[in-house]
Amino acid sequence: MWQKKSNGWFFYVLGSAGGRAKDRYSMCLYLPESLLLDAGNIFALSRDKLLQVEHVVLTHSHLDHLVDIPFLIDYTYGLREKPLKIYGLPETLDSLRKNIMNWDVWPEFSSLKLPTTDEYAVEYVQIKPLQEYHIDGYRLIPVESRHTVPTVSLIVKREGRGIVYTSDTYRNPELWKMIQEDPEIKLVLVDVSFPSYMSMVAQASLHHTPQSLREDIKLISRKDLRVYVVHIKPSHEKEVLEELRKLDYKVYPIVGKRKLTV
Ligand SMILES: [Zn+2]
Ligand SMILES: [Zn+2]
After folding, report:
1. How far apart are CA 70 and CA 162, in angstroms?
2. Other C-beta atoms within 10 Å of 260: how many?
3. Of 11, 114, 118, 150, which residue is 20 to 30 A from 79 by alpha carbon distance?
């Protein structure tokens, strides 16, 4: 049967660093028109785009991944007509509510109604690993990651083409086996935070170095997978980039913002 060939889809990396520094912002992916994965640099979006954001999926509770949530709801509260839906593991949402949206550090917007409708400003949605979620035309599947707090990597698919955003992670052979066996997955964004000489720190904080990433990549024999490196610590950017250049597997580091086609 004749099938229309998909031209693919695209998304924006709004923040790609493992911290903050001049011109460096923490993890934030924008999938038009209304979906964000992590909230490290939401204000890279224009006002119009910001107002269209309805869904933010948080991979875990660390500050660099949710730092803009309080400001996003504050900015859009008086203007939005639908609740902002915040998705995460139960532990992630609990931490956000207990430590930030707690009336002490910031208002708890899930108990405030929007001025224009009868709906609450924020809605929390719990997610579970290996369940499938349908959000704004995307299929989203969380997979358990290897990090110091409960964390998910995210598989996102559309039109039969997918990406994996590992979020913060150390070695996770199960995930790389899934990637190897799923030809629909076209690209991976993977955490490499530290240079390899800091492997003690990387292991203690459960992040990759170029060396540990190379171990996981050994599980990939497909030739069509693009591997992008993100979450580089700004203070060690030069060293990590230099090391990645010498790696015997081609990877593409992202520092700053970027549009990617899937
Ligand atoms: Zn992080
Ligand atoms: Zn983290």
Report:
1. 30
2. 18
3. 11
DSSP string, 92-156: HHHHHHHHTSSSSSS--GGGSB-SSSSSBSEEEEE--TT--EEETTEEEEEEE--SSS--EEEEE
pLDDT tens per residue, range 32-77: 999 999 999 999 999 999 999 999 999 999 999 999 999 999 999 9
Q: How far is the CA of 91 from the centre of ligand 2 (A)?
A: 13
Domains of the chain and CATH, by start: 10-261 (3.60.15.10)
For residues 38 and 92, give the distance between their C-alpha atoms in angstroms, rounded to a whole number: 12
Q: Quick check: pTM over 0.70?
A: yes
Are 193 and 207 spatial neighbours (Cβ–Cβ below 8 Å)? yes
Which residue carries 């190379």 as its tokens?
214
Measure 57 CA to ligand 1 centroid, in angstroms.
Answer: 14
Q: In the numeric block, which tokens belong to residue 199?
A: 């492997």
